[in-house]
Amino acid sequence: MSLGGVNFSKEYEHPGMLDWLTLRIDLSILPDTVIRQLQSMNSMIFKVNAVTGDIDWQTYAWESVRSDTHQVCFRVGSDFHIQGSPARVGLPNNVFGALDIRYCALKMIRFAESFLKLPELPGIEKWACSRIDVTRNYLMQSGAEARQALAYLKQSPESRQKHSFEANGFYIGKGSTLHRGKIYLKGQDAKRNKRLGRAEYTDKQIEQSERLLRTEYTLARHIVKRLYDEKNIKWHELTPDILLKMHDDYFREYLSEIEVTDMSDVLERLMNVAPTEGQAQAAYDCYHRIRLHGFEQARVSFTKTSWYRHIKHLNAAGFRRVDLQPINIIPLRKRAIEVSQPIRHWDDIQRAC
Fold first, then answer.
1. What angle (nearest 5°) sits at the alpha carbon of residue 183, between those of residues 83 and 237?
2. How far is CA 127 from CA 26, 88, 124, 304, in A?
């Protein structure tokens, strides 16, 4: 390894990455001096009985340790825990990274050793793992298309696992201790992390990230245990091929049939001329209504002020009255998301432009 534990022959090697690992090791196999050192660094959380003043229970808290721009957390109890994104060590952000689980785990362990000034900890074979997040990024034709794809996915019927939603995300089986999934807009996540100082992005990378639809598959503790019990596969024996297959099998029913409208001919033109994204979207909705009902019928469904604002933006985007008739409206094409075409690096976005 080099550059503080980063081996660039491992980073960006596959069209997917590990965005989270939760590792732990039994304290009993560590030297007493290391145990005392770890315990002295870890804060405690107490629950005090309001009536008697006695301590009902106490536990060690998670402590965040700073990497260059991100945080990795540790906690000491009967085990020593390390958790976080491997990309948070040595890389400016976690959009792309490594999929080699041994390399990722070792990078986090070595970082903990260095930051906490510990002697060399045991090899990864001595560690247990209770969470693995496998992530892939799909490049959409535009940010508008990525948002539309997410909106489409939110309408997917539930299967075995329940669905839940946030403005920026679609969750499958949230809270499951077996496995769960998340599909979200990486651009929104990137902007938030940059604003909060949790990651570093160039302005160009922020712009590029708007086009990324990100899928995240979590192997929780019960499926990690099942892999060992039923297939004799230890967590550190999960190869990139195995992890990618599990990821793709989980999301296949969601991504294999999704079709999104190619709005680059309309919405993107509006995004370039309207002062806000909301006004661009509203003008696009007006365009869609004209397409369905005709110019005059669509006009009566808007207030005078809204109508002229929408038409002004459509005109600025290059549409004239003759273009805004059902016979002349540009047809909206459909395009399927290819589940087999995730990207691995920022350069893949540049090549696709």
1. 45
2. 8, 20, 5, 67
- The pLDDT tens digits of the residues spanning 177-226 come to 999 999 999 999 999 999 988 889 999 999 999 999 999 999 999 999 99
33 forms beta bridges with none
Count CA atoms within 13 Å of residue 89 on its CB side. Answer: 34
Place 67 in a pLDDT band, splitting at 50, 70 and 90. Answer: very low
> Which residues fall within 8 angstroms of residue 197, CB to CB, at 6 or more apart?
69
**244 token code pair:** 């990618």
Residue 155 token pair: 């309408």
Distance from C-alpha of 186 to C-alpha of 96, rounded to nearest angstrom: 11
Query: Sign (positive/negative) of CA torsion 285, 286, 290, 292?
Result: positive
Burial environment of residue 331 by CB neighbours within 10 A (0 to 12, 13 to 18, 19 or more): exposed
Report CA dihedral (203, 104, 217, 144) to the nearest 10 degrees.
10
Coil, helix or strand at residue 249? helix
Whether 159 and 143 have beta carbons less than 8 Å apart is answered as no
